[in-house]
Amino acid sequence: MEEKNASEIIARLDRLPVWSLPATFIAVLGTGFLFTFFDIFDINVSFIQTALTTFGVSSPSSPEIPQLLGPVVLWNLVGYVIGALALTPLADRYGRKRMLMITMAITGLGSLYNALSPDYLNYLLARTITGIGVGADLAIVNTYINEVSPVNGRAKFTSLVFLFATLGAFLGLWLGLLITTPPAPFPLGLPFALGTTGIFATAGWRIMYGIGSLLALIGLLLRVELPESPRWLASKGRIMEASKIVERMEEAARKKIGELPPVPQHIEVKTITEVSYKEALRTILGNRVYLKRWIIVMSMWFFGYITVYTNAAGLTTILSSLGYPSSEAGMIASLGILGFVAVPVLLILFGDRLERKVWVPISAVIMLLGGAIMAEAGHNFFLEVLGAFVLFFGNNLWIPISYAWTTENFPTRARVTGFGLADGIGHIGGGIGAFLVALQIGNIVSHGVTSNTPLEVFMLMISFQLLSALISLAGIRTAKRRLDEISPH
């Protein structure tokens, strides 16, 4: 009887054609994403000041900076992997909401530790702790969004929440430009930058991490109001709780569209009250269908993240090592990030119109164009900004779509675990790859910068995104299909 009732609840949920939770809940989830991506991107501009004031580096164009940055990115992603693998199964066992609170708290504490770091070793440890929270949080947030979104709008609402992520990235870069770089005439920098003034001259980067911890606290308090995922509750046999949430969602949908569509055919839903980590792993790795899907999406993330994190954490450092003044390099990255902001705007409108996997090669081609423009710009500021805009646009276009796609590949009882395994192990590629790419870039520029060096650097970075795009084409089609039809229990 429980399984019959669970199937009915899922069918009622799947018939809702519009977002049926309070609109403010999108902002609640988005605030968490804003902080998460602020934390990912705040290192891009500010790390140069950190290295100069705290790690004993003498020059902003020193090859030491990318060499110091590599381990920082690596250990942040090591933490990400730990969080993704160790904490995500708890969300499948104990619920999405409870773990959303815990992961945001971990992330905020890591950011506060970063603000207080006295040396390189503590800085590394703080970034690792922050990574633990981020790795789990992204998996749980994306799973939650897709479990409560309408069938024909999972990519749309993932992208809408991702809009807050782009604002966080934008804030991380521009705040770094304002309080950690020296003033310079526009467009070579900000004339009113504070990076050489008072406390900002030595502690601007610390203030940034302090702001990050405050954003995390705000995100944590807002999440208290979120309901549990009714899809997860139904899968646990908690029928009454799930039914009450779905009833509220149905009422909200009626207010928007009037009469609701008919309830679709029931899909068998097995209720499992307890799912251990071992059982969740067996669901993903012990089933041929889900194992194949996991290999594809994990490999896509593995290679794609090498490019993503090299660009996201290191573009300012790369440009500085190619001979750009640090303020100008930061300005190029900070204007280029507008390409990131444009991503969700496009995907909110068109994300559900194409299959998920098609967006990955589209993104890779756009990145190639952006990298080529930057490499051939020849220190032409406006061409560099255009190239950075295109580069950031391509670098992030595939990510929210692939977030949605990854959750769709796995069943409810192990959905967060599946996402964590794919995205977490994928980050191992991002961490090791970005570390090795940073070292290789340092080696390339240490031999002198020639006219061919920028093209060599950017093509090295983008080559991994091309490989990711080829792998993605082997994946399944999921657009506009019911979650339990794509990934049966």
UniProtKB/TrEMBL annotation:
Annotated organism of origin: Metallosphaera prunae
Name the record gives this protein: MFS transporter
A GO cellular component annotation in the UniProt record: membrane
Localization, UniProt: Membrane
Pfam families assigned: Sugar_tr
Signal sequence bounds: none
Domain Major facilitator superfamily (MFS) profile: 25-480
Record-level Gene Ontology MF annotations: transmembrane transporter activity
Membrane-spanning intervals of the chain: 21-48, 68-87, 99-116, 122-145, 157-179, 199-222, 294-319, 331-351, 358-375, 381-405, 425-445, 457-476
Keywords: Membrane, Transmembrane, Transmembrane helix, Transport
Record flagged with keyword Transmembrane: yes
Topology of the protein relative to the lipid bilayer: Multi-pass membrane protein
Entries under PANTHER family matching the protein: SYNAPTIC VESICLE GLYCOPROTEIN 2
InterPro entries, sorted: MFS_dom, MFS_sugar_transport-like, MFS_trans_sf, Sugar_transporter_CS
PROSITE patterns registered for this protein in UniProt: MFS, SUGAR_TRANSPORT_2
Superkingdom per UniProt: Archaea
Coiled-coil blocks: none
